[in-house]
Amino acid sequence: MTNKNKRIVLAYLAKPKYGGWATYTCHLYKGLQAAGFEPIIVKQGNRTEKMLRDYGRKIRYQNVSSNDLLNLCKEYPTLIVAVDKHHHDTAQRLIQAGAAITIHDPTELKEPISNIVRNAPTIVIRESMLAHLPNATYIQHPYQARTITQHTERKPAVALSRIDFDKHTDIIIKANTQLETPIDIYGFMNTVYAHFKLNDIAPNWKDNYYGTFPADDLWAAARIANNYERVVDMSIIKKDGGGTQYTFLEAANANTHLILHDEWQPTGLLKQYAHTCTTPEQLAELCTTQLPDRTEAANKLLAHHHAPTVANQYATTLNW
Fold first, then answer.
1. Model confidence over 44-70: pLDDT tens digits?
2. For the stretch 207-242, what's the b/e string if a residue is b when 16 or more beta carbons lie within 10 angstroms of its beta carbon?
3. Less CB within 10 Å around the terminal CB: N or C of the chain?
4. In 3D, which of 88, 84, 91 has the Cα closest to residue 121?
5. What is the pLDDT of residue 5?
6. Domain check: are 182 and 42 in the same one?
7. Quick check: helix, strand or coil at residue 245?
8. Which domain holds residue 133?
9. Each residue's pLDDT tens digit, 189-225
10. What is the CA 3 to chain-centroid distance, rounded?
11. What global pTM score does this model have?
């Protein structure tokens, strides 16, 4: 049974400050708050600090020692919201003490995590992940939508994902060589990928690169998307796809069009909302032609991911 006003520990066992892990943690935190819970975000530190540190997005977290983290797990319902290779041992100890864990995509399922989660209460955020973890529970991404007044004058298109191999930014760069008004690009850059892949395609590609967006605003990407008619995301994750990523939901929040790669194979409400393409030429065409209005589909997608509703699904599934 759900116990409102109950403390929930969100254990962030990872280093990245940006990207899907951090964004997911923030939206789940907001959803739990709105649903009446008292979430806290903790990270493993050398010692337990009394002070709270800045997690970004106007949210705070606490560094706690390994032993105190274990004690928290024994006292309060605990969800490991992300784990990287530096924290596998801690994740195993917490799971043995009763913690649940969220697995975001198949790239995380390497040894020893694949064994650690075998008998753990596990949440996956895309239904396609059940093929890899059939005993897990699928619960959709939480997203706490924000009212954003739509700009009347918008530029054609923007990309908001990481600049990396699995995001296939190279397709966007190739499309830009064909566009009179190129797709603007934001996001954290993998410099190796940029140097060896993108620079060969178009040495001046950074003319349309505007860096990362502010970490102090959970809706920064949605606000940027609001300046554009389309959000482009060419993600292809091996053995994954179909469901949402946060750039998709941020696009819907800004009521823009969303263009995905065909190989993402969107399903359900996302399929009703998104446009798809494969080649740079097709992407360039989608960026220059009039697209049918999909506001209703965007709103349905956002409603499906309503953070407080999703938070209550966690509470029911994990017996909080």
1. 999 999 999 999 898 999 999 999 999
2. ebbeeebeeeebbbbbbbbbebbbbbbbbbbeebbe
3. N
4. 91
5. 59
6. no
7. coil
8. 7-142+305-317
9. 999 999 999 999 999 999 999 999 888 899 999 999 9
10. 27
11. 0.94
